[in-house]
Amino acid sequence: MPSLPSRRHLLAAGAGAALGAGAFGASAVPASAAASRHSAAPEETRTLDELYRAALAEGGKLVVYAGGDTPTQQDGTKAAFKARFPGIDLTLIVDYSKYHDVRVDNQFATGTLVPDLVQLQTLQDFVRWKQQGRLLHYKPAGFSKVYDAFKDPQGAWVATGAIAFSFLYGTAAVGPEAPRNAYDLVDPKWKGKIASSYPHDDDAVLYLYTLYARQYGWEWVARLAAQDVRFARGSNSPGDAVFAGQKAIGIGTAGSAVPAAASPARFVITDGHPFMGWGQRMAILDRAKNPAAAKLFLNWQLSTERQKNSFNGWSVRTDVTPPAGLKPLWEYPNAHVDGFPRFMADRAEVERWKQTFALYFGEVKGDPTPGWLGLHPGA
Questions:
Q1: Is residue 271 exposed (0-12), middle (13-18) or buried (19+ Cβ within 10 Å)?
Q2: CB burial class (10 A; 0-12, 13-18, 19+) of residue 73?
Q3: Residue 115 contacts residue 378 (beta carbons within 8 Å)
Q4: Which of 69, 160, 182, 186 lies in the 20 to 30 Å Cα band around 304?
């Protein structure tokens, strides 16, 4: 198991981060000056309809960069937004968060910023961008109801989606011997019947595998590597394989602990065994061309209307009650909600875990599932 970082490693990582920030066009504005320009504002009091009118008056355009796995993954969100606010020309670009974040960095460095708002899994970027003065400090309506760890106190960013990763199985494919926890997946009877997203390609899946390795040990990892697991890029791929009947089990994908009764698959969360949860962060960029439309989108995503209808039943708001059978995501100690931001912040440790899993499972293969989008998608 990779060792915990030493003080020397932390200092070296901090120095490297500072050098990298300068190389990629970080703001030269001191943190104190940036803070004065981005002082915390009161929570939004305008209604969605009032915000809609402001967005129309601004020009009615909006560009969002969203982390995800396929070009169509946010089509439902786009359709719902367009139905509610038909006058807004929304461009919503899906790509892996690890490409969107450096794309935004490069756009800042070259003065070619495209998105108004970002919605990403790379939690560490929001902390860095806040320090660089890249984010608009803004508190949408309902901000005070968001779980404290899912928001920046000054409003630089706020999570709008509570997401969990674990493993799932097809009920018909596993029959009466369904795996009860991730440790069961190394049973020889599942050999050749498992799909997984690469842990060394997606940091959320990486954290999930890290939790498994910490709890079950490297012997478990070695036994899983001998299970003839079909690895693929994109956290959608394990679920797709299970729902298509290609594999019985899928590791490293999103889901809900209380799926519809008619669902052919079950997402597994077991007391005493790890899974991982986090808040998907969203922020308006300081140089956004369409800040009014970005505020509308952020308020809409955080509204109780949207939060009550999340795909997995979980909300980031403390005043939205989950459906029967669920607790708020942060009430599951085995979800390690507070651990994921810390994990993401230590990029040297993340890299060590990635390369270690590559030794067990092989190098990442295949094109990115959203395609190759280049430097300025949505421009």
A1: exposed
A2: middle
A3: yes
A4: 69
Residue ranges making up the domain that contains 210: 163-276
From residue 2, alpha-carbon distances to 223, 224, 323 in Å are 18, 18, 39
Q: Under a CB-based contact definition with an 8 Å cutoff, are residues 205 and 97 in contact?
A: no
Question: For residues 208 and 245, is the Cβ–Cβ distance under 8 A?
Answer: no
Residues 213 and 260 in one domain: yes
CA distance 377 to 379: 6
pLDDT tens-digit series, residues 11-26: 333 333 333 444 444 4
Phi/psi at 225 (5° precision): -60, -25
Output the six-digit token pair for 253.
């994908």
220 vs 239: CA distance, rounded Å: 22
Domain match, 321 and 244 both: no
Pairing of the two strands 61-67 and 89-95: parallel
Q: What is the DSSP string of 153-183?
A: TTSS-EEEEEEEEEEEEEHHHHTT----SGG
